[in-house]
C-alpha cells in the first residue's frame, strides 16, 4: 500500500514537472500579499444576525491594549496598540462570565480583510482566561497610525508566523455552532 501511494506521488510529480518542462507555466501559488490593497476605513462586526459598524473613533474610545510581537514577514519586532478581541467579543455576549463557557467553546471568529483574505480562530483562542496569546484589532504600530495596513489590522501574539494576521481588516464575524 505504501509503495502504491509513493508511486502515485512520484507519478503526479512527474506529470507536473513534464508540464513545466514542455513550456507550460506552473499554476501560480495564491498569496494574500499579492492582491491589491484597499485600505480599511471601518470595521463591521457580525454576530447572531446583528451587525455593528465601528469607525476609527469608535475603536479609539474603547480600552486599548499593547501587544509586542515579532513580524516574521519583515523580520522585525513591532509594538501594536488597539482593542482586545476579548473586549470586542464580550460586547456580543461571547464571554466565560455568567455561564457562557459553552458558547465560547462552540464559537469561532472569522476576520476578513478588504482583499477578501480571511482567517479563522476558535473563540477560546481569543479568551485570555483560556489561552496565553493575545489578539487585538490594532490601530497603531510603534506608536504611529497604521498606513498601508488600513485603519485596522488583526494581530495575534501567539503566532510563530503572522499568517493569521489580517491587514486592512474590515469584517469580523462570530459564529456559534450548536
Report on this structure.
The chain is an alpha+beta fold and 178 residues long. The chain has helices at residues 2-21, 56-60, 85-90, 101-105; strands at residues 43-47, 50-54, 65-71, 76-84, 107-113, 118-122, 135-141, 144-145, 153-156, 166-167, 169-176. The chain folds into 2 domains: 1-30; 40-176, Sulfite Oxidase, Chain A, domain 2 (Alpha-Beta Complex). The protein contains 4 helices and 11 strands; from the N terminus they run αββαββααβββββββ. The strands form 2 sheets. Strands 3, 4, 7, 8, 9 and 10 form a 6-stranded antiparallel sheet that branches.
Brief overview:
By secondary structure, the protein is of the alpha+beta class.
Topology (SSEs and partners):
Elements: H1 2-21, E1 43-47, E2 50-54, H2 56-60, E3 65-71, E4 76-84, H3 85-90, H4 101-105, E5 107-113, E6 118-122, E7 135-141, E8 144-145, E9 153-156, E10 166-167, E11 169-176
Parallel strand pairs: 1-11
Antiparallel strand pairs: 1-2, 3-4, 4-7, 5-6, 5-11, 7-8, 7-9, 9-10
CATH topology name of the largest domain, in short, is Sulfite Oxidase, Chain A, domain 2
Question: What is the C-alpha radius of gyration, as a whole number of Å?
Answer: 20 Å
Q: Sheet with the most strands?
A: 6 strands, antiparallel
CATH architecture of the largest domain: Alpha-Beta Complex
Number of helices: 4
Termini Cα gap: 39 Å
CATH class of the largest domain: Alpha Beta
Topology pattern, helix = H, strand = E = HEEHEEHHEEEEEEE
Domain module tally: 2
Outline the low-pLDDT stretches. 1-22, 24-31
How does the helix and strand content classify structurally? alpha+beta
CATH superfamily membership of the largest domain? Oxidoreductase, molybdopterin-binding domain
